[in-house]
């Protein structure tokens, strides 16, 4: 792709050069769609708990080589139009065309292409790459581009708030608008005066932490209604803010509250009925530390906290003690993370236009306030040849196409607020990145935590960003440099030289690294040379995002910069059902390491049975490290993750979305060391998560034992529950039911004010053991209800229990039950709980489910943003199946659950808020293999 003189480009100035586009992946005269075999598939997404259908679209068209999982996610999340209507997209061709043709049309109108032929080639190349899962745009592109909705293409936003009430209230409003669209935002509250400073009226300021409460409540309400996915937010405070200690302790204090409430019987799990009573749970918190503070920590010196308006020191604190409090809070509840302010701004291309003060929720996008960044990620494994060599030249060509398309999107994009739109158009921040790094390293025989692995990752990242900036400089010669470049030219060139110098310092270990690093060196040199003449089109070029949903769309084994999650995977099958497989990267890695086919087969069989490689037949112990994963028998050490981040950070314009997972046995001192080494190694941001540190972690290995404390006798206050007995005459109802062929009766008695007070269940013959057990069970539940235990607590505990009898029921609202108790408590929920509480538990009547489908998918294409994907569930066989004891690999519903079964303990991850499947890490977020939902941006 080179430059030429534009002759027919609409919108191009006369004599202005346009791009000459050459074919790379495609063949002249053959459309990319004609090169693949297509097939029709049925997408039926159901609730794996009860088998109810939540999404169904039959006869969708996809290439044969696309997995069932990728097909399901793309169909349910990205296809636009009302389900069942002629306007509904039903083919991957329609989806790709909707996006690609919009990009090409905008590129033509804005003078990017030299001729109409160049535009056509660009269209075919982009189509081929998307069709063959070489790269993907971030989710907002697939949601919005080419529809009647606003053409929002960005997933990452940074807001600004000043020290006045108008700005603070505007913050609430802007954040809500961004959440409504399913995206996330971050901001820095350090401009707000502390609670230790005076107002002009003479009173004392409230401080930023007090205003966080309102924003947190607003986010908790709005984000649960996101049309496309759950939103996320980031709150940052500078380390020299006088309220920094209060900020550090906010979530740790709330975690203590959660424990107390949990021990008192309240439901405090992630989606529990009572979790909404605690504060600050909807944001990631980070402290902005600078070099001055970190040097004070290193030397044990005092550090000054400064007034917001005057900048004068109003209080001093022990830097080591403050740093320890950050580590202590993170050890207790995973917050706050740290952002290294001096490092961030040292790599800032536009310092004359303002400092970088905050990040997006996942910490990968960092630039000016009131700005946004659209993302795209390349699938690295697509560039690995059968000979084990990374095709660096092909990678360069692919980066050229992707970065060009990303820049074109800013020409037609819409933004949630005018300030964000104005800043983004002036600086044109982009975020190209990659996925499948962990799989690539394993396939080439590199351990994730090794010098060779880090060298390969660094070289590829340098080549990607160097090529992106070179292409950006060429685009500046075609359509002009970004508006803010003239003011920041010297700084931008300085940062380019810093990147190039870091590239020269890469210590190569393998022929792959040498080839890639040498090509990257040439790209940086060309980019600096061209940029010196033209300037650059983009203030930023690259980030490393979580790539959750789009990673599944590209059928990637690993997300972002992450290592492989586990060696065994949970694979969905055509027609429903699933099976356990060993990662296809494993045999490829074994072949790269020199093992023969017979040895590879034996090792793979061993891994399938045990979930790890320790003592695998014929596998040399020195090769164990190649197969180390995020979880499992040989999990990567925390510093291994930090060192990998440090290896690639000098070649990223923004930062890296990644959480460093630490074992439950880690100490506060270990957290301190991680945060300190992050600074020493030149990272821009870092967050940790210690296993089992949060109460709202549904499937963790064990709960921490509460610290015993012996209060003084005179201070003991004993609270006892009081039993509220039912009156002798009370309203009641009796229901006959059938579950899996077993007949029974449920009698429910209520208080006069409609609260359930007792139940009696008749099941089995009078005098039988089963009848006696049900009588005792009924009495215990009835007494519990009368002592004030909420019905929703029982519903959450007993619904979805699995044992015989189970199967079909005669109840139109609950067609399938996994046990008698599952049916009884879901029936009681329908009869006695209000809709809001049932919605939290995922229990609806047949009429309500029908209304949800009609309202969610019965709208026209222009209203598609309102589709409620919260109702989507994991894909399993839609037909009812008898419930029986199964081998453990078959009872999992995700890779994370599969690993739990192999290891005999739970991997540390939350349940998906959309479908209930256990998620797995994706950067600093989590991603669901069942429905593609993420907890952040991708």
TrEMBL record:
Record region (Disordered): 854-895
Ribonucleotide reductase class II vitamin B12-dependent N-terminal domain ranges (all copies): 43-133
Broadest EC class assigned to this enzyme: oxidoreductase
GO molecular function annotations of the record: ribonucleoside-diphosphate reductase activity, thioredoxin disulfide as acceptor
Catalysed transformations (reactions): a 2'-deoxyribonucleoside 5'-diphosphate + [thioredoxin]-disulfide + H2O = a ribonucleoside 5'-diphosphate + [thioredoxin]-dithiol
Keyword Manganese among record annotations: no
CDD domains recorded: RNR_II_dimer (cd02888)
Record-stated family: Belongs to the ribonucleoside diphosphate reductase class-2 family.
Ribonucleotide reductase large subunit C-terminal domain residues: 154-689
Organism: Amycolatopsis acididurans
Secretion signal span: none
InterPro entries the record matches: RdRp_reductase_class-2, RNR_2_N, RNR_lg_C, RNR_NrdJ/NrdZ, TSCPD_dom
Name used for this protein in its record: Vitamin B12-dependent ribonucleotide reductase
Composition skew (Polar residues), residue ranges: 885-894
Cofactor(s) needed: adenosylcob(III)alamin
NCBIfam families hit by this protein: NrdJ_Z, PRK06556.1
Protein EC: 1.17.4.1
Functional note: Catalyzes the reduction of ribonucleotides to deoxyribonucleotides. May function to provide a pool of deoxyribonucleotide precursors for DNA repair during oxygen limitation and/or for immediate growth after restoration of oxygen.
The entry's keywords: Cobalamin, Cobalt, Disulfide bond, DNA synthesis, Nucleotide-binding, Oxidoreductase
Residue ranges of domain TSCPD in the record: 727-831
């Amino acid at each position: 792709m080179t430059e030429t003189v534009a002759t027919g480009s609409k919108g191009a100035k006369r004599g202005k050069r346009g791009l000459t586009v050459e074919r790379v992946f495609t063949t002249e005269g053959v459309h990319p769609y004609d090169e693949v075999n297509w097939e029709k598939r049925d997408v039926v997404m159901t609730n794996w708990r009860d088998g109810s259908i939540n999404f169904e679209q039959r006869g969708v068209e996809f290439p044969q080589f696309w997995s069932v999982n990728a097909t399901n996610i793309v169909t349910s999340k990205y296809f636009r139009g009302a389900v069942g209507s002629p306007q509904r997209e039903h083919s991957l061709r329609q989806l790709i065309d909707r996006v690609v043709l919009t990009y090409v049309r905008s590129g033509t109108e804005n003078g990017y292409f030299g001729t109409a032929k160049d535009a056509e080639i660009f269209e075919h190349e982009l189509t081929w790459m998307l069709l063959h899962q070489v790269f993907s745009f971030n989710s907002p592109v697939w949601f919005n581009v080419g529809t009647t909705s606003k053409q929002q293409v960005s997933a990452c936003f940074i807001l600004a708030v000043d020290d006045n009430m108008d700005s603070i209230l505007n913050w609430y409003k802007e954040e809500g608008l961004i959440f409504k669209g399913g995206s996330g935002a971050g901001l820095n509250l350090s401009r707000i005066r502390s609670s230790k400073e005076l107002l002009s009226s003479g009173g004392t300021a409230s401080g930023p932490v007090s205003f966080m409460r309102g924003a947190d409540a607003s986010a908790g309400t709005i984000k649960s209604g996101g049309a496309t996915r759950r939103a996320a937010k980031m709150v940052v405070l500078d380390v020299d803010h006088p309220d920094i200690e209060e900020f550090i302790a906010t979530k740790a204090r709330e975690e203590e509250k959660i424990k107390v409430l949990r021990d008192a019987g309240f439901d405090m799990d992630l989606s529990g009925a009572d979790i909404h009573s605690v504060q600050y749970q909807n944001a990631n918190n980070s402290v902005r530390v600078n070099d001055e503070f970190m040097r004070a920590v290193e030397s044990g010196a005092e550090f000054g906290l400064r007034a917001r308006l005057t900048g004068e020191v109003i209080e001093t604190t022990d830097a080591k003690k403050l740093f320890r409090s950050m580590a202590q809070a993170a050890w207790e509840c995973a917050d706050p993370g740290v952002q290294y302010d001096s490092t961030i701004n040292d790599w800032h291309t536009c310092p004359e236009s303002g400092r970088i003060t905050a990040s997006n929720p996942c910490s990968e996008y960092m630039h000016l306030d009131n700005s946004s960044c659209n993302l795209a990620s390349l699938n690295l494994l697509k560039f690995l040849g059968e000979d084990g060599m990374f095709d660096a030249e092909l990678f360069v060509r692919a980066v050229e196409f992707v970065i060009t398309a990303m820049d074109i999107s800013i020409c037609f994009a819409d933004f949630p607020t005018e300030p964000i739109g104005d800043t983004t158009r002036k600086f044109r921040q982009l975020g190209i990145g990659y996925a499948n790094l962990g799989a690539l390293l394993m396939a080439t025989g590199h351990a994730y935590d090794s010098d060779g692995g880090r060298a390969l990752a660094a070289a590829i990242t340098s080549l990607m960003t160097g090529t992106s900036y070179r292409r950006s400089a060429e685009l500046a010669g075609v359509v002009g440099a970004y508006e803010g470049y003239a003011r920041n030219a010297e700084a931008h060139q300085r940062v380019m030289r810093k990147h190039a110098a870091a590239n020269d310092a890469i210590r190569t270990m393998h022929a792959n690294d040498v080839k890639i690093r040498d090509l990257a060196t040439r790209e940086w040199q060309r980019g600096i040379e061209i940029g010196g003449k033209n300037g650059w089109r983009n203030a930023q070029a690259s980030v490393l995002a979580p790539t959750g949903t789009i990673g599944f769309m590209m059928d990637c084994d690993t997300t972002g910069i992450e290592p492989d999650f586990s060696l065994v995977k949970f694979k969905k099958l055509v027609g429903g059902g699933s099976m356990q497989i060993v990662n296809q990267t494993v045999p490829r890695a074994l072949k790269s390491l020199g093992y023969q086919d017979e040895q590879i087969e034996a090792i793979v069989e061993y891994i399938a049975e045990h979930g790890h490689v320790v003592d695998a037949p014929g596998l040399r112990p020195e090769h164990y490290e190649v197969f180390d994963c995020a979880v499992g028998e040989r999990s990567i050490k925390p510093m291994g993750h930090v060192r990998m981040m440090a290896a690639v950070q000098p070649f990223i314009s923004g930062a890296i979305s990644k959480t460093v997972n630490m074992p439950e046995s880690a100490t506060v001192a270990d957290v301190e060391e991680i945060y300190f080494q992050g600074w020493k190694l030149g990272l821009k941001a870092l967050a940790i998560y210690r296993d089992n540190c949060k109460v709202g972690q549904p499937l963790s290995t064990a709960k921490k034992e509460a610290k015993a404390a012996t209060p003084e006798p005179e201070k003991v206050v004993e609270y006892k529950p009081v039993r509220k007995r039912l009156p002798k005459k009370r309203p009641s109802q009796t229901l006959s039911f059938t579950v899996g062929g077993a007949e029974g009766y449920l009698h429910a008695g209520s208080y006069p004010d409609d609260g359930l007070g007792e139940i009696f269940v008749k099941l089995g013959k009078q005098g039988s053991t089963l009848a006696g057990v049900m009588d005792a069970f009924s009495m215990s539940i009835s007494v519990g209800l009368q002592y004030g235990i909420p019905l929703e607590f029982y519903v959450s505990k007993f619904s979805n229990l699995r044992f015989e009898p189970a199967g079909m029921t005669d109840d139109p609202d609950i067609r399938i039950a996994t046990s008698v108790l599952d049916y009884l408590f879901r029936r009681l929920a329908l009869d006695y709980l209000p809709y809001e509480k049932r919605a939290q538990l995922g229990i609806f009547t047949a009429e309500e489910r029908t209304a949800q489908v009609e309202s969610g998918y019965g709208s026209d294409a222009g209203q598609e943003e309102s589709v409620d994907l919260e109702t989507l569930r994991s894909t399993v066989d839609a037909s009812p199946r008898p419930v029986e004891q199964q081998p453990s690999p078959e009872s999992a519903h995700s890779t994370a659950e599969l690993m739990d079964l192999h290891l005999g303990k739970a991997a540390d991850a939350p349940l998906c808020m959309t479908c209930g499947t256990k998620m797995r890490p994706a950067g600093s977020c989590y991603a669901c293999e069942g429905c593609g939902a993420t907890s952040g941006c991708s």
